[in-house]
Amino acid sequence: MVSLIKIDIAIDLLPNKCVKIGLNNKSIITTMANTSISYQPTFTIGGDLTVNRLGYGAMRITGKGIWGPPSDKDEAIRVLKRAVELGVNFIDTADSYGPYVSEELIAEALHPYASGLVIATKGGLERTGPDQWPVNGSPDHLKTALEGSLKRLKLDQIDLYQLHRIDPKVPAEKTFEFLQKAQQDGKIKHIGLSEVSVDDIKKAQEFFEVVSVQNMYSVDNRKWEPVLQYTKEQNIAFIPWFPLNAANVASQEKLKEVADKHGATVYQTALSWLLHHSDNILLIPGTSSVKHLEENHKAVSVELTADDMQHLDKIAG
Asked: Does 277 lie in the same domain as 171?
C-alpha cells in the first residue's frame, strides 16, 4: 500500500536562477528554473461546482458590437458544441450579449446540458445599440433580466449568476438584497460580481457568499492584483476578461520570446501565464471560430518554467 502525504510547497526564485522550495516549513535549493511548473487544472466554485479552469466566454457568438445575431450562426453552434467536446465545462455569458442572442444560442446548441456543465450568466447592463452598455442594477431590472435568462437558458436555477456592474445610481444594498432574495428563492445557486474592488466584495459578503469575481486582468494589466490576492485568500474564483492587450507592443515582444521557445502563439502563452499565476483563475477566452477555439484550448499544453514566469512577470513592471 502506498500512503500519500500532502506537502505544502512554496517556490521563490533566487538571484542565481535556482529555485528555493519550501516543504512544510523546511527549505531546499534546487536548479529547477528551467523545469516546467505544474498547476491545478480544476477549481471548485462555491464548494460544489468543480470545473476545468479553461472555460469559454460566449460574448463573441453575436453580431458586430456584440449586437444582434452572429454573421454565421451555424459556426457559432459548432463552436459551442466543440467547446464541450474539448472538455470545457464552464461557459460564461450574459443577457446583454446580443442582447439575449448568446443565451439563446447556448440553449439551442447544448440543451439538455451535459452533467457537470456550468452555465454562468450575468445581469445588470442594458443595451441601447452596438457597443453601448448602460448600467442598471435596480431590483426591477435585475428581476426581468434573471427571469429572462432562466427562460432563454431553459433552466430552473442559474448555477452562477453574476452582477455585471455595481450601479452607482442605485444603493448597493438594494441590488445585493435582490440577489440575496433570488438565491433564497432558489432561482440562483451561487452569486458572483464583476469589476469590483476588495471593499465592494466585502460589502456584498454581508448579504451573500461571493463565489466569483470577474475583472479585467492580464499579464500586462494588473490593476486588480489586490482583488486577485483577496479572492485567492477567500477561495473565490477570479475570472479575468480581456486577457491580452494586443496594442501593448512591449508586452507582445516579451510574450513572443517565451511563445517561440514553446512553439506556441502569443495568445496561448498569455493564457498559460494566467493558469500558472494563480490556481483560482478561471479563463473564459471567447471566439466565434472553431479554429480559434481549438488554438485557445492548446494553452493548457504550454508548460511554462520558473524562468518563463519570471520573464513574463517583468511585463507589469
From this structure: yes
Indicate the angle between helix axes 139-153 and 101-110, nearest 10 degrees: 30
Report the pLDDT value the prediction gives residue 20, as an integer from 0 to 100: 42
Q: Which residues of the chain have pLDDT under 50?
A: 1-31
What are the helix (H) ranges across 61-130? 73-85, 101-110
Give the residue among 202, 166, 164, 207 at the shortest CA–CA distance from 183: 207
Count of CB atoms situated within 10 Å of the CB of 66: 21
* Same structural domain, 4 and 125: no
Tens digits of per-residue pLDDT, 188-203?
999 999 999 999 999 9
Asked if residue 21 and residue 103 are part of one domain, the reply reads no
In CATH, what number is assigned to the domain containing residue 229? 3.20.20.100
pLDDT score at 218: 95
Specify whether 122 is located in the same domain as 153: yes
My answer on whether 59 and 137 are in the same domain is yes
d(CA 250, CA 256): 10
Same-domain status, 9 and 54:
no
User: Looking at the annotation, which residues are catalytic?
Assistant: 97
Structurally, how many domains does the chain consist of? 2
Within 8 A by CB and 6+ apart from 58, the residues are 80, 91, 92, 93, 97, 102, 105, 106, 286
pLDDT, one tens digit per residue, over 230-262 is: 999 999 999 999 987 766 777 889 999 999 999
Structure confidence by residue, pLDDT tens digits, 15-46: 444 444 444 443 333 345 678 889 999 999 99
Q: In sequence order, which ranges of 139-208 are alpha helices (DSSP H)?
A: 139-153, 172-184, 198-204
Question: Which residues span the domain enclosing 153?
Answer: 42-316
Q: Is the dihedral of CA 250, 253, 254, 259 positive or negative?
A: positive
157 plus 83 within the same structural domain: yes
